[in-house]
Amino acid sequence: MDSFTALLDGFASALTPQNLLFALIGCLLGTILGILPGIGSTAGMAILIPLTLTMDPASAIIMLAAIFYGGAYGGTITSVLLNIPGEGESAITCIDGYQMTLRGRAGAALATAGIGSFIGGTIATLALVVAAKPLSELGLRIGPPEFFSLVLIGLALLVGLVGRSVLKGVISACLGLLIAMVGIDPVMGLPRFTFDQPHFFDGISYVPVLVGIFGLGELLATSGGAAPKPTAPTLRQLLPTRTDLRRAAPAIGRGASIGTVIGLIPGVSSAISSLLAYSTEKKISRHRTELGSGAIEGVAAPETANNSHSNAAFIPLFTLGIPASPAIAVLMGAFLQNGLTPGPQLFTEAPDLVWTVIASLFVGNLLLLVLNVPMVGLWTRILAIPYSVLRAVIFAFIVIGSYAVNNSVIDIYVMVFFGIVGFVFRQVHLPLAPLVLTLILGPFIESALRESLQISQGDFGIFVDRPLSLVFLLVALAILAASVLSAGLKRKAGLPTDAEV
Amino acid sequence: MSDNTHIPAATAEGGPATADDRRQSVLPLVVAALVVAIGAAAFIGSRSLGYWDDLGPGPGFFPLWLGVLLVVLGLVWFGQELRARLRPGLASKPAADEEETPDYSLPSVLAILVSLCVLAACLVPVGYQVSMLVFLLFHLLVIGRRGLLQSLVIAVVGSFGVFYAFTRLLTVPLPVSSIPILRDLGL
């Protein structure tokens, strides 16, 4: 069965009323969480994973994916209206987006961002459809040593590009790996670091850890601030003028290509795509001199790029089993929670599910456009709800969520503990992204390393003897070396510490 | 760690050192020391697990090297932070200032953490409904200073309403009280 027939089948099941409803709920919930101060799409997904525990895997993942891009759009709304980026990827949108708001053009900025996101997301998902089969066949040929080296590239990119300090990035990655060690060891079946608690024999569940680090950690870190109040644009202000569309079109095109290509690289966060798209506009756009003072290109290009990046990031997840960003890592956690391991085998083990999820990406992007853009007025009203009320409700939710995974109170304590961890990480500027990635990939990294060494009977030469693995290792080393050298440059560029979170 | 005591004094020269400044300046050192301690614990803990066996690396192999790495990296970080304090104006301090640390208030943070732990401790004996009702009322009335009626409505929906929705509609079980009298009341 070729990809497009499979995709059509996927559409058939993504468009069932049930799945459509979950995609819709996901988009709405994601947008709401994305708008709330301090909660990005990663935290949003982590907080809402518990809602999906009793659903069937396809619906659960469809809903979480919808929360993911709904959250990204919610972040865009606060960037444009309040100059507060919900996440690193919308930070660059603040520059021109907020300027447009000051000129009374917030509606046009939000609509353009919505249209750009839809086009970018659709193009990237098309790339996923085309690349999925051939890349997953390649992925199947990758053995444990190559997988291990490939993950190192992803980690090197994440540590090197996202955070400003390579040292702190590596510390964060090591801590994530160490947490992943808790439980029964994957090769010998021996309990490790379980503190003699049978509860930890299965390892520490992802959900309380993620909810703690992203949800509670963020709420603690922002506990002193009061939420600012925006004014909502009217529906008429939402319509971009013809000039807007003519000017935005080339920027959207460039943003979509940049996001799709960069999104393919494991470990690079979508903030990098936004940044690249923006700087490209600054170099080659016809209206480059207006950028920074409210030019529509400054909203269209980065918003398109980050959404196409987010969708393209599914390609390494589905074909190689490597999550490209913390948000995708959380989604991978949801796959694992449902007993599915993302990777090339998934196309043969659960083809229906994969293609349903891919089809739902198209559907979700469309839902986001037709629903969320006109509803901007309603979304901004959410910010009028007192923050203390919102926060109390979120607390109730994260407690239920952590408890419901294993029906265990221990998981609530785990969540509180990791809430403190997330809070402290934010205070001392340790990036959270590497920790989340190694936490979820930990068992895979360890199995790959140990299986490789079993194949070679303990000879570490296996990683350099196999040509592909050697190339991956060299690339990873080069990236780390380059990022150590360019640490000063990056500081000047003002990249966010933890771009995805 | 004796160098930490210099920090408040040093800040005091330029003006009064707030509790916040002091915390901010000592926290990275404490966390770096913790990283070293965690690494050391992982190293020691992994030695009993078996480093190498007939098949290749054993269960202790990976944690052992992670422990070593964490100790080394933690020490480097500690050194960097210390150097930045001993020689102000050098090294990483300016970088840290550029990055915005979100606003938090320590009393709120502590209130949140303690209330969550109390809630977790009460869930099994008292049951979800009563514990969550009290938890939400505390957050809405005491911390959030919301009105009584509004708080009551939200708290009842969040406790009894959510319990009903989760146990009946979503079939996700939430804890009921282990005390017989409360359990008989349906709590």
TrEMBL record, chain A:
It holds the Pfam family TctA. InterPro entries: DUF112_TM. Residues 20-437 form the DUF112 domain. Coiled coil: none annotated. The chain crosses the membrane at residues 20-49, 61-82, 108-132, 144-163, 169-188, 200-221, 256-278, 312-333, 353-371, 383-403, 409-425, 469-489. It comes from the Bacteria. Keywords: Membrane, Transmembrane, Transmembrane helix. This is Transporter.
